[in-house]
């Protein structure tokens, strides 16, 4: 693997590699993606190999101009068009009817395709220069935490991919919101970096995926996903340590993951955890999302065996943070 910077020369090397069928990890505003030419089935197959990802899991196709949506989608429903105009580029993925030219390996044989226009200038430039559209899942082994820095990618996949473009830490920090725009009202398949209220402001009503009654149709809905090696136990905001059985807390390697300073202080004072970490001292869901995966990567690297986490208030990106914490807890 070769590490690249973000000079125009390096971005040309990265995009040329994609055009030649190689695997290139690129920064996006959400998380790092592992990119390949979406119209090259062999290159896309190498993504699955590198990630050890089951082939049933469809990929997101990334574009760098709204006009390229038609190269991938067979049609664009009016509500999808409104969302593209209002919220792209940004952390919103739309599920649309697929054109037959899109290889089946990209969509796992589905009749639909996931489409996203990232706002990160490096991702945009690499896609633009490649002259193609780029299939890219998060650049992590299947089921593990998504990477929010080039170092995360290098340590997880460095020996299995061709290039990593280092664009620094990702600003949003959780994956894009996935919305099925083939149904009316459109349906949220994965909460993520685009707050649901921003979507509602553009198209009104949306359906929420309810894991209690529905069968997952998208692996982003699998119960266990985005999981660290440590056991993660999840509790309501403000309910620790009362909700935990004190005897189960490992005094040596446990950490409590609190939302804000008030909760952090309370969990420190109780003295039951070896350490306490706050997602956002100032209680900002955006900051919590941006730091979540980085913190979990670090806790794994430190060899923690238990993470006692509290949910955060569900407004804004809080819903996406709670979703990732929930999935991390289902191992
Ligand atoms: O922020 C993101 O979305 C990042 C960056 C790299 O763009 N990508 C990402 O990709 O998270 P991935 O492959 O880790 O997650 C894509 C999600 C999966 O849950 C997948 O099942 C769902 O999108 N998906 C893809 N195509 C689909 C389709 N045709 N129908 C339903 N769900 C689909
Ligand atoms: Mg992923």
Brief characterization of the structure:
With 331 residues, this protein is of the alpha/beta class.
Index terms:
331 residues; alpha/beta; DHBP synthase; Rossmann fold; eleven-stranded mixed β-sheet; four-stranded parallel β-sheet; 11 helices; 32% helix; globular; binds threonylcarbamoyladenylate; binds magnesium ion
What does this 3D model show about the protein?
The structure is a single chain. With 331 residues, the protein is an alpha/beta fold. It has 2 domains: 2-203, DHBP synthase (Alpha-Beta Complex), CATH 3.90.870.10; 231-328, Threonylcarbamoyl-AMP synthase, C-terminal domain (Rossmann fold), CATH 3.40.50.11030. 32% of the residues lie in helices and 18% in strands. The protein is built from 11 helices and 15 strands. The chain has helices spanning 8-19, 41-51, 69-72, 78-87, 104-107, 121-130, 150-157, 196-203, 261-270, 285-301, 318-329, and strands at residues 2-4, 24-26, 33-37, 60-62, 92-97, 112-116, 134-135, 163-165, 177-180, 187-190, 207-208, 231-235, 254-258, 275-278, 306-310. The strands form 2 sheets. An 11-stranded mixed beta sheet has the order 1-8-2-3-7-4-6-5-9-10-11, sandwiched between helices. Strands 12-15-13-14 form a 4-stranded parallel beta sheet. β9 and β10 form a beta hairpin. α1 packs across α6 and α4 (78-87) packs across α8 (196-203). The radius of gyration is 20 Å and the shape is globular. The model has no long low-confidence stretch (mean pLDDT 94).
């Amino acid at each position: 693997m070769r590490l690249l910077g973000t000079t125009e020369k390096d971005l040309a090397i990265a995009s040329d590699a994609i055009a030649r069928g190689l695997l290139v990890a690129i920064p996006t505003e959400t998380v790092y993606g592992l990119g390949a030419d979406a119209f090259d089935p062999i290159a896309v197959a190498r993504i699955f190999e590198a990630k050890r990802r089951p082939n049933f899991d469809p990929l997101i196709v990334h574009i760098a101009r709204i006009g390229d949506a038609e190269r991938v989608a067979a049609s664009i429903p009016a509500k999808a068009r409104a969302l593209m105009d209002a919220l792209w580029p940004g952390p919103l993925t739309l599920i649309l009817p697929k054109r037959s030219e899109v290889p089946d390996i990209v969509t796992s044989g589905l009749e639909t395709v996931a489409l996203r226009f990232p706002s990160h200038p490096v991702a945009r430039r690499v896609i633009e220069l490649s002259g193609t559209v780029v299939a890219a899942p998060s650049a992590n082994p299947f089921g593990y935490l998504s990477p929010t820095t080039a170092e995360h990618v290098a340590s997880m996949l460095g020996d299995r991919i061709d290039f990593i473009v280092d664009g620094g830490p990702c600003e949003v920090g959780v994956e894009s919101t996935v919305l099925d725009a083939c149904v009316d009202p459109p349906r949220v398949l994965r909460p993520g970096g685009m707050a649901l209220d921003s979507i509602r402001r553009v198209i009104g009503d949306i359906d929420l995926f309810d894991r209690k009654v529905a069968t997952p149709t998208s692996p982003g809905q699998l119960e266990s996903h985005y999981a660290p090696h440590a056991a993660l136990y999840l509790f309501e905001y403000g309910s620790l340590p009362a909700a935990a059985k004190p005897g189960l807390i490992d005094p040596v390697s446990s950490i409590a993951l609190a939302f804000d300073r008030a909760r952090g202080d309370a969990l420190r004072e109780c003295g039951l955890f070896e350490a306490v970490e706050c997602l956002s001292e100032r209680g900002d869901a955006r900051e919590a999302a941006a730091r979540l995966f980085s913190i979990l990567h670090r806790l794994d690297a430190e060899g923690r065996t238990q993470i006692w986490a509290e949910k955060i208030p569900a407004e804004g990106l809080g819903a996406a943070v709670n979703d990732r914490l929930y999935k991390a807890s289902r191992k």
